[in-house]
Amino acid sequence: MQYDALKTFITLVEVNNFTKASEILHISQPSVSLHIKNLEQEFHTTLFIRSPKSVQITPTGEILYKRAKQIMAIAEAAQEDILAYHHSIQGTLIIGASFTIGENILPSILSKLQQQFPQLELQVIIGNTDEIIQFTKLLQVDIGLIEGQAHDNELVIQPFMQDELFIVSASNHPLAEQPSITISQLQRQKWVAREVGSGTRNYLDHLFRTNGLQVHSLLTISSNQGVKESVIEGLGLSLLSGSVIERDIRNGDIAILPLAEQRFMRTFSYLHSPTMKNKRNVEALIEFITRKNET
């Protein structure tokens, strides 16, 4: 099997256009077609259904795409192992992170990582927890960092730190004047929440279910900053990580509503494909996030 042909195949799947693939790879369009033809002959299958206006991948093409991504990841890991043998971590590390981690936890880790390994190019993709899990499974990122814990036989998943969430309100909300509140005081309140698929939203839904909370209204926003600004404007209560609201609490923009005898703890986890297990760049990041938790 030819390495270049697999690279061409993956690129064509992802851009869905022969001309664009040839431009990205800096090869001629006939060369792209030849690589695909050679792969189809080698595997005795049709990888794409071609028409004048579109290129559609076949079911067997989907199978090869998944395996080809794994093969490429292993080849990249081999290259990085050779670099590590020469006592240097280089190349690119693509990190997927859920919003809370990517916006509030990860930057300080990346700063230290880049100081120690200045030749390492870092790329960060931020999405909600469900999106990061999918990116990791499809090898679109080398490692994912998510809120909560996932269960997926295709991935290696390990917790790396604990996070506490807090019920919050605008500083002038009537409940903010009380030293602590009860569950009954949360009935029929207005809430502001992250979108479905977010780890923070999953925890809030769990809070609603386990305490039998009835909601007056629910405003959904797909960013922590949007949720915070809405809370500050008095649009409702929310449940947010302490790392997200730290500055707002100091500035007096947001108030924590302590719920009597209840704390809301969750786990942050990292996850990666088994093919990334010995990738030195991935190992370097794991060492840093583990070290941060220990300190």
Care to describe what's here?
The chain has ten helices and eleven strands. By secondary structure, it is of the alpha/beta class. The chain folds into three domains: 3-73, Orthogonal Bundle (Arc Repressor Mutant, subunit A); 82-159 and 267-294, Periplasmic binding protein-like II (D-Maltodextrin-Binding Protein, domain 2, 3-Layer(aba) Sandwich); 162-265, D-Maltodextrin-Binding Protein, domain 2. The strands form three sheets. Strands 3, 4, 5, 6, 9, 10 and 11 form a seven-stranded mixed sheet that branches. A two-stranded antiparallel ribbon has the order 1-2. Strand 1 and strand 2 (55-57) form a beta hairpin. Helix 1 (3-15) crosses helix 3 (29-43), helix 2 packs across helix 3 and helix 5 (99-116) packs across helix 10. The mean pLDDT is 91.
Main features:
alpha/beta; D-Maltodextrin-Binding Protein, domain 2; seven-stranded mixed sheet
Short description:
By secondary structure, this protein is α/β, with parallel strands linked by helices.
Annotate the secondary structure layout.
Elements: H1 3-15, H2 18-25, H3 29-43, E1 48-50, E2 55-57, H4 59-85, E3 91-98, H5 99-116, E4 120-127, H6 129-137, E5 143-147, E6 156-170, E7 189-193, H7 199-211, E8 215-220, H8 224-232, E9 238-241, H9 242-251, E10 254-256, E11 264-272, H10 280-294
Parallel strand pairs: 3-4, 3-5, 7-8
Antiparallel strand pairs: 1-2, 5-11, 6-9, 6-10, 6-11
Helix pairs in contact: 1-2, 1-3, 1-4, 2-3, 5-10
